[in-house]
Structures are given as structure tokens and as C-alpha cells.
Specification:
Elements lengths: L2 H10 L9 E5 L3 E5 L14 E5 L16 H9 L5 E5 L2 H7 L4 H7 L4 H7 L4 E3 L6 H18 L5 E4 L3 E6 L2 H24 L11 H8 L2 H8 L2
Parallel strand pairs: 5-6
Antiparallel strand pairs: 1-2, 1-4, 2-3, 4-7, 6-7
């Protein structure tokens, strides 16, 4: 049993219901991912996790079947240096992801320092696609567009009408990223409700965001996670 992934699942279980969501960890041979049909909260059996090669094929014939969304984990690991991936369905964030226009505003607005530090200067919006291979193809297209604009792989992907993907370097970072995203969504909706018209929203400026990104104290604090 991989206790690091089990603990990660327990910490993220409040952001899913039933057997929703999936998590994974990079290994020397590929990655370990939650098996299909298992709950993040109760990953107490070896069958709850499946070891795969980098292409997403199980390394053993026996055991559970990897998540139906294994393909996007495989693609992200093959095209980045991230060590953990956490895909969940946070309720407040999903409310925004189910709108026609608020999702794009939510992706670019930053309201407080840790939103910048842990979720990045901007999030990557992915249009809805059926979970599985179709979703992976949509992720590829959105990440390609994001990288052309920002010259880096996005840390937080917002999946329209679906959920979020956090790309992290530690399990703890994956949890904090998820929590910060959900906190940001609650603040965003609260500010929207308080401010009418919308121009009264007081989000961080580009210069303030850049200052946080380049702040040596913020970098040090993040490296400790």
C-alpha cells in the first residue's frame, strides 16, 4: 500500500462524493493511480491503486483496473516534471465551471496572495469533453494554447462542467492547491454577489501578481511544502 497516496486521498475526499475523482504519483517506471470504482476516502486495499507505465498501461495483469481518466495523467506526466496529479470536483468551483462566462473571469482574476502562489498567475480553462480519451484530447489543446501564451505548463486546470486538475510536486501541495481553488471560488462568488456592477471587483493587479510570483520569501515558503 502506498501510504502517501492513501493519505492524499483521505485529505481530498471532501472534494468528491462516492467514487468520483482520481489521484496519482509519478514513479521511476511510470505512475501509480487510483483504481476505477474506488473511493478516495477508503483506499485501504492494495486493489485501490494500480501501477502503470508512463503510457498508462498496468504493469501487472492481476489487480484493479486503472481510472478511466488514466490517459490524461499519462499525458501530463509525459509532458511535464510534476510528481503528483489530483483531480477532484469541488462544489463551489463547479458552480462557476457550470456557467457560460464566469469561468473565464475566474481563471484570470486573483484576489489574494496564496491564490497566486499556489494556483498560479492564471488557470487553464478546458472545454467540456466526455471523460476519458476525449477529455485528454481537449486538455492537450487547451494546455498547448496556454503554453504558447505563458511559456509554461499550467498548474491548475479548470474543466468546464466537470472539475479541476491540480499538478503538483508534492502530495501536500496538491491538497493546498485544491483547498485554495475552492476558497477562491467561494470568495469569487461572494464578491460577485456583493458587487454590482461587476467593475467594483478589486482583484490584484498584474504588477501585484508579478511581485508575488517573484517574491523570494513566497518561493521559500512554497519550497518547504
Amino acid at each position: 500500500m502506498n501510504w502517501e497516496l492513501r493519505n492524499l486521498g483521505e485529505q481530498l475526499s471532501n472534494f468528491v462524493v462516492g467514487t468520483e475523482g482520481n489521484i496519482s504519483k509519478r514513479t521511476s517506471k511510470g505512475f501509480i493511480i487510483k483504481a476505477s470504482g474506488h473511493s478516495l476516502k477508503y483506499m485501504d486495499l492494495d486493489a485501490a491503486l494500480v501501477s502503470c507505465d508512463i503510457a498508462g498501461s498496468p504493469l501487472k495483469e492481476e489487480g484493479g483496473k486503472p481510472s478511466m481518466e488514466t490517459s490524461f495523467h499519462s499525458w501530463i506526466y509525459s509532458n511535464s516534471d510534476f510528481k503528483f496529479i489530483a483531480h477532484t470536483h469541488p462544489t463551489n468551483t463547479l458552480k462557476i465551471l457550470c456557467t457560460d462566462y464566469l469561468v473565464n473571469e475566474f481563471a484570470i482574476r486573483r484576489f489574494f496572495p496564496d491564490q497566486v502562489v499556489f494556483n498560479g498567475e492564471e488557470s487553464c480553462v478546458v472545454l467540456y469533453a466526455t471523460p476519458g480519451e476525449e477529455l485528454t484530447e481537449e486538455i492537450k489543446a487547451s494546455v498547448f494554447e496556454y503554453k504558447n501564451k505563458h511559456n509554461e505548463f499550467p498548474k491548475l486546470l479548470l474543466l468546464k462542467n466537470h472539475g479541476i486538475i491540480c499538478c503538483a510536486n508534492t502530495a501536500k501541495e496538491a491538497v493546498i492547491m485544491t483547498e485554495i481553488c475552492e476558497k477562491s471560488a467561494e470568495i469569487f462568488m461572494g464578491v460577485k454577489a456583493l458587487c454590482s456592477p461587476s467593475h467594483c471587483l478589486d482583484s490584484l493587479s498584474d504588477s501585484e501578481i508579478k511581485s508575488l510570483v517573484n517574491n523570494k520569501h513566497e518561493k521559500y515558503r512554497k519550497e518547504l511544502i
